[in-house]
Amino acid sequence: MSGSYVHERWLSVQKDMYKEAPRELQRLSDTRWACRYSACKNLLDRLPAALRVLHEMAEESSGERSVEARGLLTQIDLTFNGTLVVMKKILGDAKCLSDMLQAPSLDLARAVDLINALQDTLQGCRAGSCFDELWHQTIDTAKHCNIAVEAVEKRSKRGSSRLSEYLVMSTVGHRRPKDGDKEKFRTAVFYPVFDNMNAELTRRFSENNCDIMKGIQALNPKGKSFLEEATVLRFGCLYDCDVDDLKHELYQAKKVVQRKAQCGTEMTNILDFTTFIEPYKEVFHQLFCLCRIALALPVSSASCERSFSALKLIKNHLRTTMTDDRLSNLGVLSIERGRARLLNLDDFVERFAHSHGNRRIHLK
User: Fold this and answer.
1) Is the dihedral of CA 2, 8, 14, 19 positive or negative?
2) Are residues 246 and 313 located together in one domain of the fold?
3) Nearest to 47 by CA among 121, 145, 122, 123
4) 52, 57, 71, 293: most buried, per Cβ within 10 A?
5) Whole-number Å distance between alpha carbons of 340 and 18
């Protein structure tokens, strides 16, 4: 749908079929899972319009484009529709956790709570009646899109009247009645998707990893569990710290932090707390080591990905001749747009007016 001709048809078909504003089919990204949920949601909501555009393209004599449209139409069947419904469900449930893990103000303790909640949700969906709801949605969507619903209700074949008064102990050539596409889809798609998601969550966020995440959050002065003894001790045990020494250090560190807080010293993150206890590192040796580990572990690529995403939006085909300095400055303003919006532009105008007495532009 990205070509100029097809894209115009895509927008016109949506305007003809829906009263809402047209939607775009988003491209997939290997690093940002939020776009995958949006892609599945938009395609599922606009699947009738997409099929209509593909049918129109298939009927045209445009060579390669018609062949691609017919190829896509053959792949959009009941299994494709059901897989789209399942992926929208599972990616929608995981979106909250994905947004939390990629947020600039990441709270690891709350992330652990969301991980446990997501695992409970997936297990409940697998064992409960979630499949029946998804299957009904799949059938309704298929009927609305005129997709063939195969083997949902099939009449059983009648046996020969000559064998009505006999007990048949072997096959007579008739095939056994199938369970239908519903059971096949349950075992081939639904269970594997949910089992793989549960297995990946268990592998990536194991009990030790969750204890590390909680321990890192316990070293954050703004966290509710700041210097909580049980949480920090579990974190220290994973890195072979001396538990007895760490207990005494935690007790003394709390007293020092309380005295400094009364003097007006404020700490907002783990880096501030590490800088605060660095002069006492000979005394708080175990705690200082854990703080350095906490500063190094939660480094993620989310900030870098946001930078590259901003770069694509800034340097488009209309701005290819800009210099590196201007590109770098615009990139900083775009990435730090939260702080940039708080600036008062009138102050910059007044400062520029007082700094430059002659502001006339010389055209020669």
Assistant:
1) positive
2) no
3) 145
4) 57
5) 38
pLDDT tens per residue, range 105-138 = 777 888 888 899 999 998 888 887 889 999 999 9
Long-range residue pairs from 106-113, CB within 8 A, at least 24 positions apart, any chain? 106/298, 107/217, 107/223, 108/213, 108/214, 108/216, 108/217, 108/298, 109/213, 109/214, 109/217, 109/218, 109/223, 109/224, 109/225, 111/213, 112/205, 112/210, 112/213, 112/214
DSSP SS3 for 201: helix
Residue 158 lies in a domain: no
Strands, DSSP E only, in the chain?
A: none
What's the whole-number mean pLDDT along residues 239-247? 89
CA distance 122 to 19: 35
Asked whether residue 217 falls in the same domain as residue 268, the answer is yes
What is the pTM (predicted TM-score) of this model? Answer: 0.69
Specify the pLDDT at position 302. 59
Residue 263: DSSP 8-state: T
Say how far apart CA 168 and CA 165 lie, in whole Å: 9
Domain shared by 219 and 135, yes or no: no
pLDDT in tens, 82-101: 999 999 999 888 888 888 88
Number of domains in the chain: 4
Domain that holds residue 333: 302-355
- Residue at a domain's end among 188, 205, 222: 205
The tokens for 354 are: 């007082």
